[in-house]
Automatic annotation (TrEMBL):
<keyword id="KW-1133">Transmembrane helix</keyword>
<dbReference type="GO" id="GO:0000139">
    <property type="term" value="C:Golgi membrane"/>
</dbReference>
<keyword id="KW-0175">Coiled coil</keyword>
<comment type="similarity">
    <text>Belongs to the sulfotransferase 3 family.</text>
</comment>
<keyword id="KW-0333">Golgi apparatus</keyword>
<comment type="subunit">
    <text>Homotrimer.</text>
</comment>
<dbReference type="GO" id="GO:0015012">
    <property type="term" value="P:heparan sulfate proteoglycan biosynthetic process"/>
</dbReference>
<keyword id="KW-0808">Transferase</keyword>
<dbReference type="InterPro" id="IPR005331">
    <property type="entry name" value="Sulfotransferase"/>
</dbReference>
<keyword id="KW-0325">Glycoprotein</keyword>
<protein>
    <submittedName>
        <fullName>Uncharacterized protein</fullName>
    </submittedName>
</protein>
<dbReference type="InterPro" id="IPR007734">
    <property type="entry name" value="Heparan_SO4_2-O-STrfase"/>
</dbReference>
<feature type="transmembrane region" description="Helical">
    <location>
        <begin position="7"/>
        <end position="26"/>
    </location>
</feature>
<keyword id="KW-0472">Membrane</keyword>
<dbReference type="Pfam" id="PF03567">
    <property type="entry name" value="Sulfotransfer_2"/>
</dbReference>
<dbReference type="InterPro" id="IPR027417">
    <property type="entry name" value="P-loop_NTPase"/>
</dbReference>
<keyword id="KW-1015">Disulfide bond</keyword>
């Protein structure tokens, strides 16, 4: 019958060939999916090896915390000292003569050389009350910077009473203003030097660095430079009021260093380790007077800028189910 109907034979042959082609296309597609799946698994495996190998034993790992005074830094550093042995990294305090926040040029150079070349101490976290040091200016790779800032007026008032009454960290240490019982309100009303609004100018220069303009209260260039450094040169800048979240983000970002840090902070005596013994909140009249200061206005602007950046990072960090992988690598890995 087929022999007597060539058209029907051709039709059957075409259908048969189409079925065969379709079958092999389906098989080829399945095979291609398996190959792509295998490649993804290989990449994931390589990424996991990369993460495992990129641990704190990496001799190039350095973290610098140029801590602003009275921002909760003692509590945070206390956690790192407790965990450094188990997490296998070193913690070093940078102590500068007369508690100066500015390093001379030769000491900047020495500091950069030490941080870069002191192999036996790495991995390391350096901390101290000093302004941002630009490593790129000295022709070496930049370390990771972190910091914590605080609402400017809160920080200023805390420091004012701290130098008079001390704190619960070292309660028997006599501070340099011991015996001076003038309240902050009275100090402001009398325009005394200790509460000069220009003294609020500290967090901006700490981020601005070692340029002359950084330390001129109310300098617009310094404010802009501090903002640029915060975004471009700091891994993370937290705020005192949300210290738990700061530690949490660090633990997820650098787990080999900060593994267990949040749990330790919340369940040990390191939380709120250093509290000023006696402190009085200022009156509204005092606040209104201080707000006229350009230094305070700019410090507030910088704090709000840092807070927005921190909240942005924190919001993205909540997407912990987000995965990052590398696909379609050409030429193929051997």
């Amino acid at each position: 019958m087929i022999m007597h109907n060539p058209r029907l034979g051709y039709l059957i042959a075409i259908i048969a060939i189409s079925l065969i082609v379709t079958f092999y296309q389906i098989q080829f597609a399945k095979l291609q999916d398996k190959i792509e799946t295998l490649e993804r698994n290989i990449v994931r495996h390589d990424q996991q090896k990369l993460v495992l190998n990129n641990n704190v034993n990496d001799n190039d790992f350095v973290l610098i915390y140029n801590r602003v005074p009275k921002t909760g830094s003692t509590s945070f550093v206390g956690v790192t000292y407790d965990l450094c042995k188990v997490n296998k990294f070193h913690v070093l305090h940078v102590n500068i003569t007369a508690n100066s926040h500015i390093l001379s040029l030769d000491n900047q150079f020495k500091f950069v050389k030490n941080v870069t070349n002191w192999k036996s101490i790495k991995p390391a976290l350096y901390h101290g009350h000093f302004a941002f040091v630009d490593f790129s200016k000295f022709g070496v790779p930049k370390p990771l910077y972190i910091n914590i800032i605080r609402k400017p007026l809160d920080r200023f008032i805390s420091y004012y009473y701290f130098v008079r009454y001390g704190d619960n960290f070292r309660p028997y240490l006599i501070r340099r203003k011991h015996g001076n019982t003038v309240s902050f309100d009275e100090c402001v009303s009398k325009s005394l030097p200790d509460c000069d609004p220009n003294n609020i100018w500290l967090q901006i220069p700490f981020f601005c660095g070692h340029s002359a303009n950084c330390w001129k209260p109310g300098n617009k260039w310094a404010l802009n430079e501090a903002k640029k450094n915060l975004v471009n040169n700091y891994l993370l800048v937290g705020v005192t009021e949300e210290l738990n979240d700061f530690i949490d983000i660090l633990e997820h970002t650098l787990p080999t260093v900060f593994n267990g840090s949040l749990h330790h902070y919340l369940n040990s005596n390191k939380s709120h380790l250093r509290q000023t013994v006696q402190k009085e909140m200022p009156s509204e009249k005092t606040i209104v007077k201080l707000r006229q200061s350009m230094a305070l206005q700019m410090e507030n602007e910088f704090y709000e800028f840092a807070l927005d950046q921190f909240h942005f990072i924190k919001k993205q960090g909540k997407k912990r189910i987000q995965n990052l992988m590398y696909e379609k690598i050409k030429p193929k890995l051997i």
